[in-house]
Amino acid sequence: MSQTTLTFDTLTATIREIFLKAGLSPLAAASVATIIAAGERDACKSHGVYRIEGCLRTVKAGKVVPGALPTLEDEGSGVIRVDAANGFSSPAFELGAPVLAERARKLGVAALVINRCTHFSALWPEIETLTAMGVAALAMCPSYAAVAPAGGTKPLLGTNPFAFGWPRPGGDPYVFDFATSVAARGEIELYCQSGQQLPEGWAVDAGGQPTTDPAAALDGAMLPFGDHKGSAISTMVELLAGAMIGDLTSAEALDYLGTTTLAPHHGELILAFSPERFSGSRRGDPFARAEVLFEAIAGQGARLPSQRRFTARRKAMADGITLTSEEMALIERLRSGGLVAVS
User: Fold this and answer.
1) 3 state DSSP class of 87
2) Structural domain of residue 324, as residue ranges?
3) Active site residues
4) A GO molecular-function term, please (predicted)?
5) What is the distance between the alpha carbons of residues 68 and 49, in angstroms, rounded to a whole number?
C-alpha cells in the first residue's frame, strides 16, 4: 500500500481548499479544516480526513449553512451565547472562547452556549483551546439518536461526548474526551469499511439482539459504556446540552436530519473554571497541587489520558502526517469534484 506524507500545514491547506470550493466561508473552511487535520496529526483516524465527506454530504443535503456567520450574545453575565446560525460549530466556538475564558477568570466560572450548530468533531480541540488560555474546561453535546439506554433495545440517546481539560503550565494539558457510548460511531463506521467484526458488547442489531457485525450495529443501536453508568451520564448530557440550553436532544436531531449519514445538528455547552479564583490560595497553588496528583498517577506506571495523542502529535509535527493511497484518493476526488463527487 503506497503512502504519502504531508506536513500539517499542507494537509490543512488542502482540506481548506475542498471546503472553500463547497461554499464554506473562509472562516468556516479554515476552522473545519484545522480540526480535521488535527485529527490526523494526533492519530485520531475516526476524526480525520474520513470526516470530510460526511461534512460535505451534510452541506449537499442542505442541513448545514456553509456560509453561516455566527453571532455573539453577551450581556456580561456568566452565560455567553453564540448562535451558529445553522453553520458548523467550530467558527462559533472560536468566536465565543476568548470571552468565555475572560469571564471565567473574572467570575470564577462561566458557560458558553452554542446553539443551532453542526458539530462533527471530537471535543478535545475546544478543550485544548481553553486550557491554553489558562482555564479548566468541561464540554458536552448531544449527537443524534444512535445509542440504546441501558436495558433498552432502540436508539434514543446520542454518543454524547463529554470532555474535560486542566491546564499544566509548561506542559501538555490533562485532557480526556470520550463518548458515553462504548465507542464513537465513527469507529464502528471504520470497522464496517475495513470488514472487521466489532468487539462483543458494543451494539445490538435492529431486533435488539447483541451483534458484532458493524453493518448490523449501524442499523441497530450502539450501547452505553458501563451499562447504567454511561446511560445516566448520556442522559445528563441530553438534559444539560439539549433541553437546558434550548436546543435539540439526540432524538430530535435525528428527526431533523432524517438519517444518520449526515453530521449531527444540535447545541453545545462548554463550562470554564478559574482554578485560582476557586482555590483562593487556600492550601497553596492549585496547579502545583495538581502536578503532585499527576506525578503520583504516573509513579504507579499508569498513563494519563491523551498521552498517546500528544506523542503522536509531536511525531507528526516533526516527521509529517502519513496518509494511505485510499485517503489521498478520497482527498483528490473531493478536491476535484466538490459536492458533485459526494455520494
Assistant:
1) strand
2) 1-60+306-343
3) 46-47, 187
4) oxidoreductase activity
5) 22
Examine the domain organization and report whether 20 and 155 are in the same domain: no
Strands 109-118 and 79-88: parallel
How big is the chain by its Cα radius of gyration, in Å?
A: 20
pLDDT in tens, 235-262: 999 999 999 999 999 999 999 999 989 9
Tell me: do 53 and 140 sit in the same domain. no
- Please say whether the beta carbons of 203 and 220 come within 8 A: yes
Residue 122 to residue 160: CA distance in whole angstroms: 11
Instruction: Divide the 343 residues of the chain into consecutive groups of 10 and give the mean pLDDT of each group.
Output: 92 98 96 98 94 96 96 97 98 98 98 97 96 98 96 95 96 96 85 91 93 93 95 98 98 95 96 96 92 97 96 98 96 95 88
Q: Which string of b and e fits 112-121 if b means at least 16 CB within 10 Å? A: bbbbbbbbbb
Residue 312: strand, helix, or coil: helix
> Domain count of the chain?
2
Q: Give pLDDT tens digits for 181-210.
A: 998 787 898 899 888 999 999 999 999 999
pTM of the model: 0.93
Residues 331 and 288 in one domain: no
Residues 236 and 136 in one domain: yes
